[in-house]
TrEMBL record, chain A:
<keyword id="KW-0812">Transmembrane</keyword>
<dbReference type="InterPro" id="IPR045621">
    <property type="entry name" value="BPD_transp_1_N"/>
</dbReference>
<comment type="similarity">
    <text>Belongs to the binding-protein-dependent transport system permease family.</text>
</comment>
<dbReference type="GO" id="GO:0005886">
    <property type="term" value="C:plasma membrane"/>
</dbReference>
<feature type="transmembrane region" description="Helical">
    <location>
        <begin position="103"/>
        <end position="123"/>
    </location>
</feature>
<dbReference type="InterPro" id="IPR000515">
    <property type="entry name" value="MetI-like"/>
</dbReference>
<keyword id="KW-1003">Cell membrane</keyword>
<dbReference type="Pfam" id="PF00528">
    <property type="entry name" value="BPD_transp_1"/>
</dbReference>
<dbReference type="Pfam" id="PF19300">
    <property type="entry name" value="BPD_transp_1_N"/>
</dbReference>
Automatic annotation (TrEMBL), chain B:
<dbReference type="GO" id="GO:0015833">
    <property type="term" value="P:peptide transport"/>
</dbReference>
<protein>
    <submittedName>
        <fullName>Peptide ABC transporter permease</fullName>
    </submittedName>
</protein>
<keyword id="KW-0812">Transmembrane</keyword>
<keyword id="KW-0813">Transport</keyword>
<dbReference type="InterPro" id="IPR000515">
    <property type="entry name" value="MetI-like"/>
</dbReference>
<dbReference type="Pfam" id="PF00528">
    <property type="entry name" value="BPD_transp_1"/>
</dbReference>
<feature type="transmembrane region" description="Helical">
    <location>
        <begin position="12"/>
        <end position="34"/>
    </location>
</feature>
<feature type="transmembrane region" description="Helical">
    <location>
        <begin position="78"/>
        <end position="102"/>
    </location>
</feature>
<dbReference type="InterPro" id="IPR035906">
    <property type="entry name" value="MetI-like_sf"/>
</dbReference>
Length: 328, 276
Protein backbone atom coordinates (compact mmCIF):
# COMPACT_ATOMS: atom_id res chain seq x y z
CA UNK A 1 0.00 0.00 0.00
CA UNK A 2 2.84 2.43 0.79
CA UNK A 3 4.37 1.98 -2.64
CA UNK A 4 1.13 2.99 -4.32
CA UNK A 5 0.96 6.03 -2.04
CA UNK A 6 4.48 7.04 -3.05
CA UNK A 7 3.52 6.68 -6.68
CA UNK A 8 0.36 8.66 -6.20
CA UNK A 9 2.15 11.47 -4.37
CA UNK A 10 4.70 11.77 -7.15
CA UNK A 11 1.95 11.94 -9.78
CA UNK A 12 0.06 14.56 -7.78
CA UNK A 13 3.06 16.88 -7.54
CA UNK A 14 3.67 16.49 -11.28
CA UNK A 15 0.02 17.20 -12.02
CA UNK A 16 0.08 20.49 -10.10
CA UNK A 17 2.99 21.70 -12.23
CA UNK A 18 1.28 20.60 -15.42
CA UNK A 19 -1.93 22.40 -14.45
CA UNK A 20 0.03 25.56 -13.65
CA UNK A 21 1.51 25.47 -17.16
CA UNK A 22 -1.98 24.97 -18.58
CA UNK A 23 -3.33 28.01 -16.68
CA UNK A 24 -0.47 30.29 -17.70
CA UNK A 25 -0.50 29.04 -21.30
CA UNK A 26 -4.24 29.50 -21.81
CA UNK A 27 -4.18 32.84 -20.02
CA UNK A 28 -1.50 34.09 -22.42
CA UNK A 29 -3.38 32.72 -25.45
CA UNK A 30 -6.61 34.43 -24.49
CA UNK A 31 -4.67 37.56 -23.57
CA UNK A 32 -3.63 37.74 -27.23
CA UNK A 33 -7.27 37.97 -28.26
CA UNK A 34 -8.32 41.33 -29.71
CA UNK A 35 -10.76 43.04 -27.34
CA UNK A 36 -11.49 42.03 -23.75
CA UNK A 37 -14.50 41.00 -21.72
CA UNK A 38 -15.67 44.61 -21.42
CA UNK A 39 -15.71 45.02 -25.21
CA UNK A 40 -17.78 41.86 -25.50
CA UNK A 41 -20.12 43.04 -22.75
CA UNK A 42 -20.55 46.52 -24.23
CA UNK A 43 -21.09 45.02 -27.69
CA UNK A 44 -24.08 43.11 -26.35
CA UNK A 45 -25.54 45.73 -23.99
CA UNK A 46 -24.26 49.06 -25.27
CA UNK A 47 -22.75 51.81 -23.10
CA UNK A 48 -20.60 54.92 -23.22
CA UNK A 49 -16.91 55.50 -22.60
CA UNK A 50 -17.43 56.25 -18.91
CA UNK A 51 -19.23 52.98 -18.43
CA UNK A 52 -16.37 51.15 -20.20
CA UNK A 53 -13.80 52.78 -17.89
CA UNK A 54 -15.87 51.88 -14.84
CA UNK A 55 -16.28 48.24 -15.89
CA UNK A 56 -12.59 47.90 -16.80
CA UNK A 57 -11.72 49.14 -13.33
CA UNK A 58 -14.30 47.02 -11.54
CA UNK A 59 -13.25 43.84 -13.36
CA UNK A 60 -9.57 44.65 -12.82
CA UNK A 61 -8.88 44.85 -16.54
CA UNK A 62 -7.01 48.16 -16.28
CA UNK A 63 -4.11 46.46 -14.52
CA UNK A 64 -1.06 44.92 -16.18
CA UNK A 65 -1.24 41.40 -17.61
CA UNK A 66 1.10 40.08 -14.94
CA UNK A 67 -1.02 41.48 -12.12
CA UNK A 68 -4.13 39.99 -13.67
CA UNK A 69 -2.46 36.59 -14.03
CA UNK A 70 -1.46 36.77 -10.37
CA UNK A 71 -5.00 37.77 -9.42
CA UNK A 72 -6.41 34.95 -11.52
CA UNK A 73 -4.13 32.38 -9.90
CA UNK A 74 -4.97 33.70 -6.45
CA UNK A 75 -8.69 33.44 -7.20
CA UNK A 76 -8.19 29.93 -8.57
CA UNK A 77 -6.74 28.87 -5.23
CA UNK A 78 -10.15 29.76 -3.80
CA UNK A 79 -11.83 27.83 -6.64
CA UNK A 80 -13.08 31.11 -8.04
CA UNK A 81 -13.06 31.17 -11.84
CA UNK A 82 -14.42 34.70 -12.16
CA UNK A 83 -17.60 36.08 -13.64
CA UNK A 84 -19.06 34.97 -16.96
CA UNK A 85 -19.79 37.89 -19.26
CA UNK A 86 -22.47 36.19 -21.34
CA UNK A 87 -24.28 34.51 -18.44
CA UNK A 88 -23.70 37.30 -15.88
CA UNK A 89 -23.12 34.58 -13.29
CA UNK A 90 -20.07 33.06 -11.62
CA UNK A 91 -18.28 30.82 -14.13
CA UNK A 92 -17.93 28.06 -11.54
CA UNK A 93 -21.71 27.79 -11.17
CA UNK A 94 -22.28 27.70 -14.93
CA UNK A 95 -19.65 24.98 -15.39
CA UNK A 96 -20.83 22.87 -12.45
CA UNK A 97 -24.34 23.00 -13.89
CA UNK A 98 -23.16 21.59 -17.24
CA UNK A 99 -20.50 19.18 -16.00
CA UNK A 100 -22.80 16.28 -14.97
CA UNK A 101 -24.25 15.97 -18.48
CA UNK A 102 -20.79 15.77 -20.02
CA UNK A 103 -19.62 13.26 -17.43
CA UNK A 104 -22.69 11.13 -18.09
CA UNK A 105 -22.10 11.27 -21.84
CA UNK A 106 -18.36 10.60 -21.55
CA UNK A 107 -18.74 7.85 -18.99
CA UNK A 108 -21.35 5.98 -21.01
CA UNK A 109 -19.42 6.39 -24.26
CA UNK A 110 -16.21 5.19 -22.59
CA UNK A 111 -18.01 2.15 -21.16
CA UNK A 112 -19.42 1.39 -24.62
CA UNK A 113 -16.13 1.71 -26.51
CA UNK A 114 -14.06 -0.03 -23.84
CA UNK A 115 -16.53 -2.86 -23.19
CA UNK A 116 -17.56 -3.64 -26.74
CA UNK A 117 -14.12 -2.83 -28.13
CA UNK A 118 -12.23 -5.17 -25.83
CA UNK A 119 -14.85 -7.93 -26.22
CA UNK A 120 -14.62 -7.76 -30.01
CA UNK A 121 -10.83 -7.54 -29.68
CA UNK A 122 -10.81 -10.80 -27.71
CA UNK A 123 -13.10 -12.36 -30.32
CA UNK A 124 -10.76 -11.26 -33.13
CA UNK A 125 -7.55 -12.04 -31.27
CA UNK A 126 -8.66 -15.53 -30.23
CA UNK A 127 -7.93 -16.72 -33.77
CA UNK A 128 -5.21 -14.47 -35.23
CA UNK A 129 -5.22 -14.27 -39.02
CA UNK A 130 -8.68 -15.81 -39.39
CA UNK A 131 -11.39 -14.25 -41.56
CA UNK A 132 -13.23 -12.76 -38.58
CA UNK A 133 -9.94 -11.27 -37.34
CA UNK A 134 -9.29 -9.53 -40.67
CA UNK A 135 -12.91 -8.48 -41.03
CA UNK A 136 -13.07 -6.90 -37.56
CA UNK A 137 -9.71 -5.18 -38.00
CA UNK A 138 -10.67 -3.54 -41.29
CA UNK A 139 -14.20 -2.83 -40.09
CA UNK A 140 -12.99 -1.10 -36.95
CA UNK A 141 -10.51 0.95 -38.97
CA UNK A 142 -13.35 2.09 -41.20
CA UNK A 143 -15.31 3.09 -38.10
CA UNK A 144 -12.31 4.99 -36.76
CA UNK A 145 -12.28 6.99 -40.00
CA UNK A 146 -15.82 8.26 -39.42
CA UNK A 147 -16.14 11.84 -38.11
CA UNK A 148 -18.15 11.67 -34.87
CA UNK A 149 -20.41 14.61 -35.68
CA UNK A 150 -21.30 13.06 -39.05
CA UNK A 151 -22.08 9.68 -37.50
CA UNK A 152 -24.31 11.61 -35.10
CA UNK A 153 -26.21 13.23 -37.98
CA UNK A 154 -26.60 9.88 -39.76
CA UNK A 155 -27.94 8.34 -36.54
CA UNK A 156 -30.39 11.25 -36.25
CA UNK A 157 -31.56 10.77 -39.85
CA UNK A 158 -32.10 7.01 -39.38
CA UNK A 159 -33.22 6.59 -35.79
CA UNK A 160 -34.80 9.93 -34.90
CA UNK A 161 -36.25 11.26 -38.16
CA UNK A 162 -37.13 8.08 -40.09
CA UNK A 163 -37.75 5.46 -37.43
CA UNK A 164 -38.63 7.85 -34.57
CA UNK A 165 -37.15 5.45 -32.04
CA UNK A 166 -35.19 8.04 -30.11
CA UNK A 167 -35.52 11.80 -29.50
CA UNK A 168 -33.64 14.08 -31.85
CA UNK A 169 -31.66 15.94 -29.18
CA UNK A 170 -31.49 17.41 -25.71
CA UNK A 171 -30.85 15.59 -22.46
CA UNK A 172 -34.43 15.10 -21.24
CA UNK A 173 -38.00 15.94 -22.17
CA UNK A 174 -38.64 19.40 -20.79
CA UNK A 175 -42.41 19.58 -20.40
CA UNK A 176 -42.94 16.14 -18.86
CA UNK A 177 -41.42 16.97 -15.42
CA UNK A 178 -40.79 13.28 -14.81
CA UNK A 179 -39.29 12.01 -11.60
CA UNK A 180 -37.47 8.96 -10.33
CA UNK A 181 -37.26 5.95 -12.62
CA UNK A 182 -39.29 7.57 -15.40
CA UNK A 183 -36.85 10.43 -15.54
CA UNK A 184 -33.87 8.04 -15.67
CA UNK A 185 -35.47 6.15 -18.57
CA UNK A 186 -36.19 9.45 -20.30
CA UNK A 187 -32.58 10.63 -19.96
CA UNK A 188 -31.28 7.22 -21.07
CA UNK A 189 -33.37 7.33 -24.24
CA UNK A 190 -31.99 10.79 -24.98
CA UNK A 191 -28.46 9.52 -24.45
CA UNK A 192 -28.61 6.45 -26.73
CA UNK A 193 -27.76 8.29 -29.96
CA UNK A 194 -25.06 10.69 -28.69
CA UNK A 195 -23.38 7.93 -26.67
CA UNK A 196 -23.37 5.67 -29.75
CA UNK A 197 -21.93 8.45 -31.93
CA UNK A 198 -19.16 9.16 -29.44
CA UNK A 199 -18.50 5.59 -28.30
CA UNK A 200 -18.44 3.75 -31.64
CA UNK A 201 -15.69 6.00 -33.00
CA UNK A 202 -13.24 5.05 -30.25
CA UNK A 203 -14.26 1.40 -30.18
CA UNK A 204 -11.68 0.65 -32.90
CA UNK A 205 -8.87 1.85 -30.67
CA UNK A 206 -9.58 -0.69 -27.93
CA UNK A 207 -10.37 -3.45 -30.39
CA UNK A 208 -7.08 -3.05 -32.23
CA UNK A 209 -5.07 -2.65 -29.06
CA UNK A 210 -6.61 -5.75 -27.50
CA UNK A 211 -5.95 -7.72 -30.65
CA UNK A 212 -2.34 -6.54 -30.97
CA UNK A 213 -1.73 -7.23 -27.27
CA UNK A 214 -3.13 -10.74 -27.59
CA UNK A 215 -0.92 -11.42 -30.62
CA UNK A 216 2.07 -10.62 -28.37
CA UNK A 217 0.89 -12.84 -25.53
CA UNK A 218 0.18 -15.83 -27.79
CA UNK A 219 3.93 -16.16 -28.36
CA UNK A 220 4.82 -16.35 -24.67
CA UNK A 221 5.97 -19.50 -22.96
CA UNK A 222 3.20 -19.63 -20.37
CA UNK A 223 0.64 -19.98 -23.14
CA UNK A 224 2.61 -22.97 -24.42
CA UNK A 225 2.63 -24.31 -20.86
CA UNK A 226 -1.13 -23.83 -20.61
CA UNK A 227 -1.55 -25.73 -23.85
CA UNK A 228 0.74 -28.50 -22.61
CA UNK A 229 -1.41 -28.81 -19.50
CA UNK A 230 -4.25 -29.58 -21.88
CA UNK A 231 -6.44 -26.59 -21.01
CA UNK A 232 -9.34 -25.89 -23.35
CA UNK A 233 -8.78 -23.24 -25.99
CA UNK A 234 -11.53 -21.13 -24.49
CA UNK A 235 -9.84 -21.14 -21.12
CA UNK A 236 -6.45 -20.31 -22.60
CA UNK A 237 -7.92 -17.38 -24.52
CA UNK A 238 -9.85 -15.91 -21.62
CA UNK A 239 -7.76 -16.66 -18.55
CA UNK A 240 -4.27 -16.46 -20.00
CA UNK A 241 -4.12 -14.48 -23.21
CA UNK A 242 -6.89 -11.90 -22.88
CA UNK A 243 -6.26 -11.25 -19.20
CA UNK A 244 -2.66 -10.30 -19.83
CA UNK A 245 -3.49 -8.19 -22.84
CA UNK A 246 -6.12 -6.21 -20.95
CA UNK A 247 -3.76 -4.10 -18.82
CA UNK A 248 -2.48 -1.71 -21.52
CA UNK A 249 -6.09 -0.93 -22.38
CA UNK A 250 -6.61 0.49 -18.91
CA UNK A 251 -3.76 2.94 -19.53
CA UNK A 252 -5.37 3.85 -22.82
CA UNK A 253 -8.54 4.68 -20.92
CA UNK A 254 -6.73 7.55 -19.19
CA UNK A 255 -4.85 8.74 -22.26
CA UNK A 256 -8.06 8.68 -24.26
CA UNK A 257 -10.05 10.83 -21.82
CA UNK A 258 -8.78 14.10 -23.31
CA UNK A 259 -9.76 12.92 -26.78
CA UNK A 260 -13.20 11.90 -25.55
CA UNK A 261 -13.73 15.32 -24.00
CA UNK A 262 -12.70 17.03 -27.23
CA UNK A 263 -15.02 14.75 -29.19
CA UNK A 264 -17.93 15.52 -26.90
CA UNK A 265 -17.72 19.22 -27.86
CA UNK A 266 -18.98 18.44 -31.36
CA UNK A 267 -21.31 15.62 -30.32
CA UNK A 268 -23.00 17.84 -27.72
CA UNK A 269 -23.48 20.49 -30.35
CA UNK A 270 -25.03 17.98 -32.80
CA UNK A 271 -27.44 16.60 -30.21
CA UNK A 272 -28.01 19.86 -28.29
CA UNK A 273 -26.84 18.25 -25.05
CA UNK A 274 -26.36 21.06 -22.52
CA UNK A 275 -22.88 19.99 -21.40
CA UNK A 276 -19.40 21.41 -21.08
CA UNK A 277 -18.63 21.02 -24.79
CA UNK A 278 -21.65 22.98 -25.93
CA UNK A 279 -20.82 25.56 -23.30
CA UNK A 280 -17.40 25.94 -24.92
CA UNK A 281 -19.05 26.58 -28.24
CA UNK A 282 -21.42 29.10 -26.66
CA UNK A 283 -18.44 30.81 -25.03
CA UNK A 284 -16.74 31.05 -28.42
CA UNK A 285 -19.87 32.45 -30.04
CA UNK A 286 -20.33 35.05 -27.27
CA UNK A 287 -16.58 35.92 -27.17
CA UNK A 288 -16.70 35.11 -23.45
CA UNK A 289 -12.98 34.48 -22.93
CA UNK A 290 -13.04 34.09 -19.13
CA UNK A 291 -15.65 31.35 -19.53
CA UNK A 292 -13.57 29.63 -22.23
CA UNK A 293 -10.54 29.78 -19.95
CA UNK A 294 -12.59 28.22 -17.15
CA UNK A 295 -13.82 25.41 -19.42
CA UNK A 296 -10.33 24.60 -20.67
CA UNK A 297 -9.05 24.54 -17.12
CA UNK A 298 -11.92 22.35 -15.90
CA UNK A 299 -11.26 19.90 -18.74
CA UNK A 300 -7.57 19.79 -17.88
CA UNK A 301 -8.37 19.08 -14.22
CA UNK A 302 -10.82 16.39 -15.30
CA UNK A 303 -8.19 14.72 -17.50
CA UNK A 304 -5.65 14.85 -14.68
CA UNK A 305 -8.11 13.32 -12.20
CA UNK A 306 -9.10 10.54 -14.61
CA UNK A 307 -5.45 9.69 -15.21
CA UNK A 308 -4.80 9.62 -11.46
CA UNK A 309 -7.73 7.24 -11.03
CA UNK A 310 -6.35 5.04 -13.81
CA UNK A 311 -2.96 5.02 -12.07
CA UNK A 312 -4.59 3.95 -8.82
CA UNK A 313 -6.60 1.25 -10.59
CA UNK A 314 -3.43 0.04 -12.24
CA UNK A 315 -1.70 -0.47 -8.91
CA UNK A 316 -4.49 -2.83 -7.88
CA UNK A 317 -4.65 -4.60 -11.23
CA UNK A 318 -0.94 -5.19 -11.72
CA UNK A 319 1.12 -5.96 -8.61
CA UNK A 320 4.36 -5.22 -10.50
CA UNK A 321 3.58 -1.50 -10.84
CA UNK A 322 5.41 0.84 -8.52
CA UNK A 323 7.51 -1.91 -6.93
CA UNK A 324 10.72 -0.34 -8.25
CA UNK A 325 9.77 3.23 -7.57
CA UNK A 326 8.93 2.58 -3.93
CA UNK A 327 12.23 0.82 -3.27
CA UNK A 328 14.23 3.52 -5.05
CA UNK B 1 11.54 -8.42 -52.97
CA UNK B 2 11.55 -4.63 -53.04
CA UNK B 3 9.28 -2.66 -50.68
CA UNK B 4 7.13 -1.30 -53.50
CA UNK B 5 6.25 -4.76 -54.73
CA UNK B 6 5.53 -5.92 -51.18
CA UNK B 7 3.32 -2.87 -50.69
CA UNK B 8 1.39 -3.78 -53.84
CA UNK B 9 0.73 -7.30 -52.61
CA UNK B 10 -1.34 -6.11 -49.64
CA UNK B 11 -4.93 -5.55 -50.81
CA UNK B 12 -5.68 -2.99 -48.09
CA UNK B 13 -2.63 -0.93 -49.00
CA UNK B 14 -3.64 -0.91 -52.68
CA UNK B 15 -7.16 0.20 -51.79
CA UNK B 16 -5.70 3.01 -49.68
CA UNK B 17 -3.30 4.07 -52.43
CA UNK B 18 -6.10 4.13 -55.03
CA UNK B 19 -8.27 6.32 -52.78
CA UNK B 20 -5.39 8.73 -52.17
CA UNK B 21 -4.48 8.97 -55.86
CA UNK B 22 -8.13 9.64 -56.73
CA UNK B 23 -8.30 12.27 -53.98
CA UNK B 24 -5.21 14.08 -55.23
CA UNK B 25 -6.58 13.95 -58.77
CA UNK B 26 -9.87 15.46 -57.57
CA UNK B 27 -8.15 18.17 -55.54
CA UNK B 28 -5.77 19.10 -58.37
CA UNK B 29 -8.45 19.09 -61.06
CA UNK B 30 -11.01 21.12 -59.07
CA UNK B 31 -10.21 24.37 -60.92
CA UNK B 32 -10.06 22.51 -64.24
CA UNK B 33 -13.53 20.95 -64.07
CA UNK B 34 -15.14 23.67 -61.98
CA UNK B 35 -13.28 26.85 -62.86
CA UNK B 36 -15.89 29.18 -61.39
CA UNK B 37 -16.52 30.04 -57.77
CA UNK B 38 -17.88 26.90 -56.03
CA UNK B 39 -19.94 29.20 -53.83
CA UNK B 40 -21.80 30.60 -56.87
CA UNK B 41 -25.41 29.65 -57.56
CA UNK B 42 -25.59 27.00 -60.29
CA UNK B 43 -29.23 25.94 -60.47
CA UNK B 44 -32.49 25.54 -58.54
CA UNK B 45 -32.16 25.01 -54.79
CA UNK B 46 -32.29 21.53 -53.22
CA UNK B 47 -32.11 19.59 -56.48
CA UNK B 48 -31.73 15.88 -55.54
CA UNK B 49 -28.74 13.92 -56.93
CA UNK B 50 -28.89 12.02 -60.26
CA UNK B 51 -31.74 14.15 -61.67
CA UNK B 52 -29.99 16.65 -63.88
CA UNK B 53 -26.75 15.45 -65.49
CA UNK B 54 -25.25 18.90 -65.60
CA UNK B 55 -25.55 18.88 -61.80
CA UNK B 56 -24.94 15.16 -61.08
CA UNK B 57 -24.96 15.38 -57.28
CA UNK B 58 -27.70 17.99 -57.12
CA UNK B 59 -27.65 21.39 -55.43
CA UNK B 60 -27.72 22.62 -51.84
CA UNK B 61 -30.05 24.98 -50.02
CA UNK B 62 -28.72 27.98 -51.95
CA UNK B 63 -28.63 26.25 -55.34
CA UNK B 64 -24.87 25.62 -55.36
CA UNK B 65 -23.43 22.68 -57.31
CA UNK B 66 -22.70 19.93 -54.74
CA UNK B 67 -20.13 18.18 -56.98
CA UNK B 68 -18.19 21.42 -57.46
CA UNK B 69 -18.29 22.04 -53.70
CA UNK B 70 -17.04 18.50 -53.13
CA UNK B 71 -14.09 18.95 -55.52
CA UNK B 72 -13.04 22.24 -53.98
CA UNK B 73 -13.58 20.87 -50.46
CA UNK B 74 -11.16 18.02 -51.22
CA UNK B 75 -8.49 20.64 -51.78
CA UNK B 76 -9.02 22.22 -48.34
CA UNK B 77 -9.04 18.87 -46.56
CA UNK B 78 -5.80 17.77 -48.21
CA UNK B 79 -3.99 21.07 -47.78
CA UNK B 80 -4.96 21.41 -44.11
CA UNK B 81 -4.31 17.73 -43.34
CA UNK B 82 -0.85 17.67 -44.92
CA UNK B 83 0.25 21.10 -43.73
CA UNK B 84 -0.90 20.55 -40.13
CA UNK B 85 0.76 17.14 -39.99
CA UNK B 86 4.00 18.51 -41.46
CA UNK B 87 4.04 21.35 -38.93
CA UNK B 88 3.22 19.02 -36.02
CA UNK B 89 5.94 16.54 -36.98
CA UNK B 90 8.52 19.29 -37.52
CA UNK B 91 7.80 20.94 -34.17
CA UNK B 92 7.57 17.58 -32.40
CA UNK B 93 10.85 16.33 -33.88
CA UNK B 94 12.68 19.52 -32.88
CA UNK B 95 11.26 19.62 -29.33
CA UNK B 96 11.82 15.89 -28.84
CA UNK B 97 15.41 16.09 -30.10
CA UNK B 98 16.22 19.07 -27.90
CA UNK B 99 14.69 17.41 -24.84
CA UNK B 100 16.30 14.04 -25.41
CA UNK B 101 19.70 15.27 -26.45
CA UNK B 102 20.15 18.03 -23.88
CA UNK B 103 18.64 16.20 -20.94
CA UNK B 104 18.53 17.74 -17.46
CA UNK B 105 16.45 20.81 -16.79
CA UNK B 106 15.70 21.53 -20.48
CA UNK B 107 14.34 18.01 -20.86
CA UNK B 108 12.27 18.36 -17.69
CA UNK B 109 10.75 21.71 -18.72
CA UNK B 110 10.03 20.65 -22.31
CA UNK B 111 8.41 17.40 -21.21
CA UNK B 112 6.20 19.14 -18.62
CA UNK B 113 5.05 21.51 -21.38
CA UNK B 114 4.33 18.46 -23.53
CA UNK B 115 2.32 17.00 -20.63
CA UNK B 116 0.36 20.23 -20.35
CA UNK B 117 -0.52 20.17 -24.04
CA UNK B 118 -1.66 16.57 -23.71
CA UNK B 119 -3.80 17.41 -20.70
CA UNK B 120 -5.91 19.96 -22.55
CA UNK B 121 -8.24 18.26 -25.07
CA UNK B 122 -6.68 19.13 -28.41
CA UNK B 123 -10.01 19.93 -30.02
CA UNK B 124 -10.84 22.41 -27.26
CA UNK B 125 -7.42 24.00 -27.73
CA UNK B 126 -7.97 24.29 -31.48
CA UNK B 127 -11.42 25.77 -30.87
CA UNK B 128 -10.01 28.39 -28.48
CA UNK B 129 -7.08 29.20 -30.76
CA UNK B 130 -9.20 29.71 -33.88
CA UNK B 131 -11.78 31.77 -32.01
CA UNK B 132 -9.08 34.01 -30.53
CA UNK B 133 -6.96 34.56 -33.66
CA UNK B 134 -9.81 34.43 -36.19
CA UNK B 135 -10.55 31.76 -38.78
CA UNK B 136 -8.29 31.53 -41.82
CA UNK B 137 -6.52 28.62 -43.48
CA UNK B 138 -3.18 29.30 -41.80
CA UNK B 139 -4.75 29.71 -38.38
CA UNK B 140 -6.69 26.45 -38.73
CA UNK B 141 -3.47 24.64 -39.70
CA UNK B 142 -1.65 26.14 -36.71
CA UNK B 143 -4.54 25.33 -34.36
CA UNK B 144 -4.54 21.67 -35.40
CA UNK B 145 -0.74 21.39 -35.25
CA UNK B 146 -0.87 22.88 -31.74
CA UNK B 147 -2.66 19.79 -30.45
CA UNK B 148 -0.80 17.23 -32.58
CA UNK B 149 2.92 17.82 -32.01
CA UNK B 150 3.10 16.03 -28.64
CA UNK B 151 3.01 12.49 -30.05
CA UNK B 152 5.93 13.04 -32.44
CA UNK B 153 7.83 14.86 -29.66
CA UNK B 154 7.57 11.88 -27.31
CA UNK B 155 8.58 9.37 -29.99
CA UNK B 156 11.48 11.55 -31.16
CA UNK B 157 12.72 11.98 -27.58
CA UNK B 158 12.66 8.24 -26.93
CA UNK B 159 14.62 7.59 -30.14
CA UNK B 160 17.15 10.33 -29.41
CA UNK B 161 17.74 8.95 -25.91
CA UNK B 162 18.98 5.68 -27.40
CA UNK B 163 20.81 7.22 -30.36
CA UNK B 164 22.84 9.71 -28.34
CA UNK B 165 24.74 6.85 -26.70
CA UNK B 166 25.96 5.48 -30.04
CA UNK B 167 29.57 5.62 -31.19
CA UNK B 168 29.06 8.01 -34.08
CA UNK B 169 27.70 10.64 -31.71
CA UNK B 170 30.76 10.24 -29.49
CA UNK B 171 32.84 10.53 -32.67
CA UNK B 172 31.13 13.78 -33.62
CA UNK B 173 31.86 15.12 -30.13
CA UNK B 174 35.53 14.17 -30.43
CA UNK B 175 36.01 16.05 -33.70
CA UNK B 176 34.60 19.12 -31.95
CA UNK B 177 31.16 19.55 -33.50
CA UNK B 178 28.84 21.97 -31.76
CA UNK B 179 26.26 20.09 -29.63
CA UNK B 180 23.35 21.67 -31.52
CA UNK B 181 24.94 20.64 -34.80
CA UNK B 182 25.29 17.07 -33.51
CA UNK B 183 21.68 17.10 -32.33
CA UNK B 184 20.16 18.31 -35.57
CA UNK B 185 22.55 17.00 -38.23
CA UNK B 186 23.61 13.67 -36.76
CA UNK B 187 20.96 12.55 -34.26
CA UNK B 188 17.68 13.96 -35.60
CA UNK B 189 17.89 12.37 -39.09
CA UNK B 190 18.46 8.98 -37.48
CA UNK B 191 15.54 9.45 -35.10
CA UNK B 192 13.10 10.37 -37.86
CA UNK B 193 11.81 7.00 -39.22
CA UNK B 194 9.63 6.06 -36.21
CA UNK B 195 8.40 9.66 -36.02
CA UNK B 196 7.41 9.61 -39.68
CA UNK B 197 5.59 6.33 -39.10
CA UNK B 198 3.06 8.41 -37.11
CA UNK B 199 2.33 10.67 -40.06
CA UNK B 200 -0.66 8.79 -41.49
CA UNK B 201 -2.43 8.85 -38.12
CA UNK B 202 -1.65 12.55 -37.70
CA UNK B 203 -2.81 13.47 -41.21
CA UNK B 204 -6.04 11.52 -40.67
CA UNK B 205 -6.68 13.17 -37.31
CA UNK B 206 -5.91 16.59 -38.79
CA UNK B 207 -8.44 16.08 -41.60
CA UNK B 208 -11.08 15.03 -39.06
CA UNK B 209 -10.31 18.00 -36.79
CA UNK B 210 -10.50 20.43 -39.69
CA UNK B 211 -13.88 18.96 -40.65
CA UNK B 212 -15.16 19.31 -37.07
CA UNK B 213 -13.92 22.91 -36.81
CA UNK B 214 -15.57 23.95 -40.05
CA UNK B 215 -18.70 22.04 -39.02
CA UNK B 216 -18.86 24.36 -36.00
CA UNK B 217 -18.39 27.36 -38.30
CA UNK B 218 -14.74 27.94 -37.41
CA UNK B 219 -13.22 27.11 -40.79
CA UNK B 220 -11.87 29.59 -43.32
CA UNK B 221 -15.10 31.29 -44.51
CA UNK B 222 -13.67 31.89 -48.00
CA UNK B 223 -13.00 28.24 -48.70
CA UNK B 224 -15.24 25.30 -49.43
CA UNK B 225 -14.90 22.65 -46.72
CA UNK B 226 -16.56 19.28 -46.33
CA UNK B 227 -17.31 20.04 -42.68
CA UNK B 228 -18.95 23.31 -43.73
CA UNK B 229 -21.03 21.43 -46.32
CA UNK B 230 -22.25 19.02 -43.65
CA UNK B 231 -23.18 21.94 -41.38
CA UNK B 232 -25.00 23.58 -44.28
CA UNK B 233 -26.88 20.34 -45.01
CA UNK B 234 -27.82 19.95 -41.36
CA UNK B 235 -30.27 22.84 -41.66
CA UNK B 236 -32.32 20.76 -44.14
CA UNK B 237 -31.65 17.37 -42.57
CA UNK B 238 -35.25 16.16 -42.94
CA UNK B 239 -35.90 17.43 -46.47
CA UNK B 240 -32.51 16.71 -48.05
CA UNK B 241 -30.40 14.29 -46.00
CA UNK B 242 -28.13 13.66 -49.02
CA UNK B 243 -26.57 17.10 -48.49
CA UNK B 244 -25.10 15.94 -45.15
CA UNK B 245 -24.42 12.38 -46.24
CA UNK B 246 -22.40 13.01 -49.43
CA UNK B 247 -19.57 15.12 -47.95
CA UNK B 248 -19.46 12.78 -44.94
CA UNK B 249 -18.87 9.78 -47.18
CA UNK B 250 -16.08 11.71 -48.90
CA UNK B 251 -14.52 12.38 -45.49
CA UNK B 252 -14.74 8.74 -44.40
CA UNK B 253 -13.19 7.51 -47.67
CA UNK B 254 -10.38 10.06 -47.44
CA UNK B 255 -9.46 9.27 -43.85
CA UNK B 256 -9.73 5.52 -44.49
CA UNK B 257 -7.47 5.89 -47.53
CA UNK B 258 -4.87 7.71 -45.45
CA UNK B 259 -5.01 5.00 -42.73
CA UNK B 260 -4.80 2.07 -45.13
CA UNK B 261 -2.00 3.50 -47.27
CA UNK B 262 -0.10 4.59 -44.16
CA UNK B 263 -0.43 1.18 -42.56
CA UNK B 264 0.76 -0.41 -45.80
CA UNK B 265 3.86 1.77 -45.91
CA UNK B 266 4.72 1.19 -42.24
CA UNK B 267 4.25 -2.55 -42.57
CA UNK B 268 6.38 -2.93 -45.69
CA UNK B 269 9.20 -0.83 -44.33
CA UNK B 270 9.05 -2.54 -40.94
CA UNK B 271 9.39 -5.94 -42.59
CA UNK B 272 12.36 -4.66 -44.54
CA UNK B 273 14.05 -3.48 -41.39
CA UNK B 274 13.53 -6.71 -39.53
CA UNK B 275 14.90 -8.66 -42.51
CA UNK B 276 18.09 -6.64 -42.91
Amino acid sequence: MTRSLTLLRRRLVGSVFVLLIVVIGTFLLLEAAPGDAVDAYIASTGGDAGMIELLRHRWGLDQSALTRLANYLWALLHLDLGQSVSFSRPIRDVILERLPNTLLLMGSATALSFGLGSALGIYAGARPGSFRDRFLSIGSLALYAVPGFWLGLVLIIVFAVDLRWFPIGGIESLASAKTGLDRAVDIASHLVLPVSALGFIYLALYLRMMRAGMAEVWRQDFVLAARAKGLSRRRIVLAHVARNALLPLVTMLGLQSAQMLGGSVVIESVFSVPGLGRLAQEAVAARDTPLLLGIILTSAVLVVVINLLVDIAYVFLDPRVGANEASA
Amino acid sequence: MNPLRRFLRAPEAIAGAIILVALFAIALSASLFFPGDPQAIAGPALLPPFQDWSLPLGTDRLGRDVLAELFHGARTSLVVGLAAAAAAIAVGAIVGTLAGFTGGLVDEVLMRITDAFQTVPSFLLALAFVSVVGPSLGVVVAAIALGAWTGPARVARAEVLSIRERDFVAGARVIGMHPLEIAFREVLPNALPPVLALSSVIVAAAILTEAALSFLGLGDPNRMTWGGMIAEGRAVLRAAPFLSIIPGVALVLTVLGVYLAGEGVVETTAVRRSLS
